[in-house]
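Worked example 4.2. Below are the chains of a multi-component assembly; read each line carefully before continuing.
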Amino acid sequence: MNLLGIIEEIEKADPEFQDRVSPRRAAIKNITSFGSKVAVAALPLYFSTIMKKAYGQTATPSVNDVLNYALKLEYLEAAFYNAGVSSNISFSATEKSYLVTIQGHENAHVKFLQTALGSAAVAQNTQGTNGAYDFTAGGTFSDVLTNPDTFFAVAQAFEDTGVRAYKGQAGFLVGNQTILTAALDIHSAEARHASAIRQLRRARGASTTKPWIVGANDTGLAAVNGNYAGEDNVSQGGVTITSLNGVSDNVSSSAATAAFDEPLTSAQVVALVAPFGVK
Amino acid sequence: MKTETQLENGDVNMARRSFLRFAGAGVAAVGALSMASCKKDKNPQNTNGVDIGAKGDLAILNYAYALEQLEAAFYINVAAHIYTGASDDEIKLLTDIRDHEVAHREFFKTALGKNAIKELTPNFSSIDFSSRTAVLTAAKAFEDTGVSAYNGAGYFIQNPDYLLIAGKIVSVEARHASYIRNLLNPGSFADNTILDPNGMDKPQTIGQVLSIANSYLTTKVNAFNYGYVVS
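Applying the procedure described above to all two chains together yields the following structure tokens:
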């Protein structure tokens, strides 16, 4: 089976083929580097997985689509923490150190995704107004860069939404060891952030805010109801979690919702972040 | 990109396709191995271990079930013997974590049904449950290991619905990890011992994870078909 010949034929018909299945041009050709060790029988199977991803469903976003969607969200988050850290908001030393840590990660995620996408990466200056966002979301959070409580509330919504956004894309990356694993590794880092921001809010007096999402919108901000839509789901894979045995009784509704984070579709997320300038 | 792991990736597809035909192969192989290492034992079921099974989604789900069993058992112990000096808030949130882990365990047990591995017997004799530092250090290990396990095994999962459920659970484990880490050392919720320079969690292989998990288990967990067997 002349695998490389087939790939070249596909490239002639579809020049973007490689970009869509791999962030690194010519990565497919590197299949030959496995040559001596991979069982011959495994190659067509691996190849068919790639083909299925590339052409299986017209509605399925390409790998580059997924990565650019992630990059746009990371641009927003990075710019948000850059603005917060350099603002005059009166953060405690602990709060500031948490924010600086998260700021570093979000900027690192941007760089990682830009590198993975190469020339296919969406440019930052296509976002907002010449790259500048409106963190008030059209005035909804008017004191976001002066009032620490508003800043943290928006930070929490961004982090929780980021977790949901990555989760919603995993199904489009099934079996893709490199890209899926990278997406999962960012996904859990965002969840660590979300928890940390929630811990800071709890310490600031938001006593009902826990490190995990209980029920639907538990932020106390009605403006972000959409960011938490569906988080109160208690049914997983056909199993009603509240009907399972807990420690002393059935699993409570609070535990059932908190124990499973829910995804959002890209359409849902795009609508939620559009008021900030994400395009 | 490692050749070995790509090889596994290719094999997963193959394993799925032929799952029905070869479902028994993994068990038989482990049986043979157990027999070889313990000749007196005629029945491999009598060996004090369990294998997650033939390559495929069920094995990965059983892998997750094994880890959730361990975590649930740990936090049940924590909540039943709260360490000295715990604040009310710590007690409340550690109890929440216990309830999440029990929900995860029971979910896998129910979803896997007759395909579920048996109930594992934990061994926490190395943990001083009266010591805050000891408990939180162990909790940190469990949570970070759980996150790295789901992240490292995600690409083996072929069914997108199962992958989504793994995603729903791993982010909750990461929320736990973040909280536990900050209890031990404020600000360490995502430090560079667990994240790489790209700000990404470091995944771990099934073998790496099980060697950690098995240090807290009387019932050892093997993953023969993923290249990991306790000697």
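Take a moment to check your reading of the output against the notes. Confidence is low (pLDDT under 50) at residues 1-46 of chain B. Chain B touches chain A through 72 residues (CB under 8 Å).
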